[in-house]
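JOB MANIFEST
job_type = single_chain_structure
chain_count = 1
residues = 110
[input]
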Amino acid sequence: MITCFIRYHIDPTKQAQFTEYARNWGQAIPRCGADLIGYYAPHEGSSTLAYGVYNIENLAAYEAYRARLAADPLGRENYEFAQREKFLLREDRTFLKLVSAPHGPAEEVG
């Protein structure tokens, strides 16, 4: 399993558009085969950084998922919405793997 972290730089005057974009992905991403963890919009601190996070089995599964997402009606509409409204200034994807699992309670040091 790998996790895709998408870091967005957004126009701070268009947070409502980013929220709509994120909600649309909340429907389309799981339908197209990825395990969506969530989309996160600015709250405190930076007004321009936002994130999307989801899990996918591997990079081959990611490529198949991206093809399904591009063919999905809501996926296509959301891509077009972002292009039209220009609220995404930059988008960077990083794929990471979880290395701290299994998580558990801290052991007592005696």
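[summary]
The chain has three helices and four strands.
The longest strand covers residues 2-10.
exit_status = 0
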